[in-house]
Amino acid sequence: MRVLVVEDEQLLADTIAEGLRRFSMAVDVCYDGDAALERVGVHDYDVVVLDRDLPLVHGDDVCRAVVDAGLATRVLMLTASGEIDDRVAGLGLGADDYLTKPFAFAELVARVQALARRSRPPLKPVLQRAGVVLDLPRHQASRDGRFLPLSPKEYAVLEVLMRAEGTVVSAEELLEKAWDEHADPFTNAVRVAVMTLRRKLGQPQVIETVPGAGYRFGP
Q1: CB 6 within 8 A of CB 95
Q2: What are 71-121's pLDDT values in tens digits?
């Protein structure tokens, strides 16, 4: 899952991002509406966590731009105002959900996960293939009933591969979906993550390397 956090309070934005990364989400951060418009024009986000009162370009205008572009991206709007009229106005702009500050972080995570499941096509909350079970709401992975102690990045890679349902996923696509925008495209991070993931999954191997193309989860 790839998420964009747009919040002009930098400490809050960075705190939200760091927390979401613990749930194996690839998270980009920006602090104004102009930068947000640039990011959504470049990257394919599942969810945008969007502060409403932003500098340069107002959060309402960012939300309108996402909706008008016909993107599958879901918008969770944040605001300091909890008045009903404000919530109604935010939802009327096309936001998919609305959360007032201050908020419980557990609720924010649950809402982001729920919005991602409503993307087009809908994302399944539990993935199962070749004896591997990925329970997204609980953020747990197992194989043949054995718990898998995966790092956040290993978990994210496994999710991308399982969602591909047997088709090949390139290293570039894994970088796009499981790492944030600061990932070096020439790094060996994907190869290392796949290697450690294979070790933890155990035998028989279920992640196949397709020479010159990428990786495939099977059988």
Answers
A1: no
A2: 889 999 988 766 666 666 666 778 889 888 888 999 999 999 888 877 656
Strand segments (E) across 72-129: 74-79, 97-100, 126-129
In the chain, CATH 3.40.50.2300 covers 2-117
List 148's β-bridge partners, or say none.
none
CA angle 111, 193, 23 (to 5 degrees): 15
Which residues of the chain form CATH 1.10.10.10? 126-217
Contact residues for 5 (Cβ-Cβ < 8 A; gap 6+): 13, 16, 17, 20, 27, 28, 29, 30, 49
Written out in words, the top-level CATH class of the domain with range 2-117 is alpha beta
Q: Which amino acid is at 111?
A: R
pLDDT digits (tens, 9 = 90+) for 181-215: 766 666 788 889 999 999 999 999 999 999 988 99
User: Is 100 within 8 Å of 77 (Cβ atoms)?
Assistant: no
d(CA 6, CA 78): 9
